[in-house]
C-alpha cells in the first residue's frame, strides 16, 4: 500500500491537501490511547479467528505485530505521522508494514467509530480507577489531619462572619463527606461507562457473525451496548465524568480557598510549609500560597471543559460526526488536572500546621456563644423566639459597652432575665458549646471520634 494513500482513500480521485491533513490530524492528542487501541485490536483479532472470519494464523501474526508495535511505542521507536490522522490509523498502517496483507484483515467487521468509542471507554475506565484511589487517599489524609488536631476549636462561619465555635476536625470532615459524594459520582460513572461498544460498526452493526460477548469477556466488560447508533455517538460517559470532575473541583477549590484565607495574616489559623509556597520578585517578606491558588485557578479549566463538550454535543445529529474528535482534549486535560490536583492537595493537608491558640482566641470575639445563651434560656422555660429576642438585646448591650457576654456580671445578666443563674457561665465557653452539640452530625468530640472509628483512622 502506497505511503501517500489513505487507508480509507479508495473512492477519492486526489490526495488530501496538506492543510487539511494538519487541520484534521489528532495524533498529537490521541497518541496516549495506544495501549487501549492495541488491547481492543488484539481482542477483536482473537474474536475474528474464533468465528473463522479470519484464519488463526493471520490472527496470531496480527497479535504478535500489535505487541511489537506497543513495545516500539513504549521504547520511543514508533514513527508517528500526522498524515495517518490518529492513533488508530497510525497503528494499523504500521501493522500492515510489519506483517503485510494479514494486517489489512484486522479492520474486518470494525469501524473507527466503534473503535474510538471502545478506546475512550477503556482509557477512562482505567483513569477513573486511579482517580478513585486518589480520592480515597485525600479523604483519609483529611481524616488523619482531623485526628491529629482532634480537639482544636475554631470559629465556624456563615456569610464569612463568625457564627459558632466548632472543632477543626469537624470542619475537615465536611470535606471528607464532600469527597465521599465525589467518590460515589465517579464510581457511578465507572459503572455506567463499562459497556462494550465494539461490534457496532460505523453505525448499523456488521454483516459478519461476530461474537461480541466473547470480546466483552476478553476486555472485562460486564455489558454490551444494545443500539449500534447510540454506541458510536454516545459521549454521555465523558460528559458525566467531566460533570463529576467539575463538582470535585468545586470542593477542591473551596478547600484551597480556606487554606489561602487561613494562612493569611488576617486569619493566621494555619501555616503552610515553605516548600509548598513561593516568594515575590519585589517584596522580600512575601510567602505566597501558590499551590492552593493554582488548584483554585485550575477549577476554571475543568468547568470550561465541561461547557466545551456540552456545546459540541448539543446539536449533533446521529450517529458519528467528526465534531466528536473534540472530546479528547477536554477529557485528557481534566484527567491530568484532577490527578495532579488531588495529589497536591493531599500533600498540603499532610503538611499543614494548625495554630490552635490563634483559632481558639478567635472564638472569643463575635458573640459566638449567643445561641448557647438562648438555648440555656429555653432550657429554663422560655420559648426559643423569646430567648432569641432577649439575647439579641444582651448582644446590643455588650456592643454599646464594648464587652463580651461572658464578661457581664450575673447581676447584669439577670436584668435581662431572672431565669439566668450562675451556672450560665459554664454554658458560655467555646469548649462547652462544642461538647453539647451531640446530635448526629454535630460538632461534638464524640461524633468526630465516631467518624474516625468508622474510617479506621
Named CATH architecture of the largest domain: Up-down Bundle
Can you give the helix content as a percent range? Answer: 55-70%
The count of β-strands is: 6
Question: Describe the biggest sheet?
Answer: 2 strands, antiparallel
Proportion of β residues? under 5%
CATH superfamily of the largest domain, called what? Fumarase/aspartase (Central domain)
Low-confidence stretches: none
Content-based structural category = mainly alpha
Helix-strand pattern: HHHHHHEEHEHEHHEHHEHHHHHHH
Strand order of the largest sheet: 1-2
Write a short abstract of this structure.
This protein is mainly α. About 60% of the residues lie in helices and about 5% in strands. The model has no long low-confidence stretch (mean pLDDT about 95).
Amino acid at each position: 500500500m502506497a505511503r501517500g494513500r489513505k487507508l480509507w482513500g479508495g473512492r477519492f480521485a486526489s490526495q488530501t491537501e496538506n492543510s487539511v491533513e494538519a487541520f484534521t490530524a489528532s495524533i498529537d492528542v490521541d497518541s496516549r490511547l495506544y495501549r487501549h487501541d492495541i488491547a481492543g485490536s488484539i481482542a477483536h483479532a482473537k474474536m475474528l479467528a474464533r468465528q473463522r472470519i479470519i484464519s488463526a494464523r493471520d490472527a496470531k501474526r496480527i497479535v504478535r505485530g500489535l505487541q511489537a508495535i506497543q513495545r516500539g511505542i513504549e521504547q520511543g521507536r514508533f514513527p508517528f505521522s500526522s498524515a495517518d490522522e490518529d492513533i488508530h490509523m497510525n497503528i494499523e498502517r504500521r501493522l500492515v508494514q510489519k506483517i503485510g496483507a494479514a494486517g489489512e484483515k484486522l479492520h474486518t467487521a470494525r469501524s473507527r467509530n466503534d473503535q474510538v468509542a471502545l478506546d475512550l471507554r477503556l482509557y477512562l475506565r482505567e483513569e477513573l480507577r486511579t482517580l478513585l484511589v486518589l480520592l480515597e487517599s485525600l479523604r483519609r489524609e483529611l481524616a488523619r489531619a482531623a485526628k491529629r488536631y482532634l480537639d482544636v476549636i475554631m470559629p465556624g462561619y456563615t456569610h464569612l462572619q463568625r457564627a459558632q465555635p466548632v472543632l477543626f476536625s469537624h470542619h475537615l470532615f465536611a470535606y471528607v463527606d464532600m469527597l465521599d459524594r465525589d467518590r460515589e459520582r465517579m464510581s457511578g460513572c465507572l459503572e455506567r461507562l463499562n459497556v462494550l461498544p465494539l461490534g457496532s460498526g460505523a453505525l448499523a452493526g456488521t454483516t459478519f457473525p461476530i461474537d461480541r460477548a466473547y470480546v466483552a469477556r476478553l476486555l472485562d466488560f460486564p455489558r454490551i451496548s444494545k443500539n449500534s447508533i447510540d454506541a458510536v455517538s454516545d459521549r454521555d460517559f465523558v460528559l458525566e465524568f467531566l460533570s463529576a470532575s467539575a463538582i470535585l473541583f468545586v470542593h477542591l477549590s473551596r478547600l484551597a480557598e480556606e487554606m489561602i484565607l487561613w494562612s493569611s495574616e488576617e486569619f493566621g489559623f494555619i501555616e503552610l510549609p515553605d516548600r509548598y509556597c513561593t516568594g515575590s520578585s519585589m517584596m522580600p517578606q512575601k510567602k505566597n500560597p501558590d499551590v492552593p491558588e493554582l488548584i483554585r485557578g485550575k477549577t476554571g479549566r475543568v468547568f470550561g471543559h465541561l461547557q466545551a463538550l456540552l456545546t459540541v454535543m448539543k446539536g449533533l445529529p446521529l450517529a458519528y460526526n467528526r465534531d466528536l474528535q473534540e472530546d479528547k482534549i477536554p477529557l485528557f486535560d481534566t484527567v491530568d488536572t484532577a490527578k495532579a490536583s488531588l495529589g497536591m492537595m493531599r500533600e498540603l493537608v499532610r503538611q499543614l500546621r494548625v495554630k490552635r491558640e490563634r483559632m481558639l482566641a478567635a472564638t472569643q470575639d463575635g458573640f459566638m456563644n449567643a445561641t448557647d445563651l438562648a438555648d440555656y434560656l429555653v432550657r429554663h422555660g422560655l420559648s426559643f423566639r423569646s430567648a432569641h429576642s432577649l439575647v439579641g438585646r444582651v448582644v446590643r448591650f455588650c456592643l454599646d459597652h464594648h464587652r463580651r457576654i461572658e464578661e457581664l456580671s450575673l447581676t447584669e445578666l439577670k436584668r435581662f432575665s431572672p431565669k439566668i443563674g450562675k451556672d450560665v457561665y459554664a454554658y458560655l465557653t467555646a469548649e462547652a458549646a462544642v461538647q453539647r452539640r451531640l446530635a448526629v452530625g454535630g460538632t461534638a468530640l464524640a461524633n468526630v471520634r465516631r467518624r474516625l472509628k468508622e474510617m479506621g483512622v
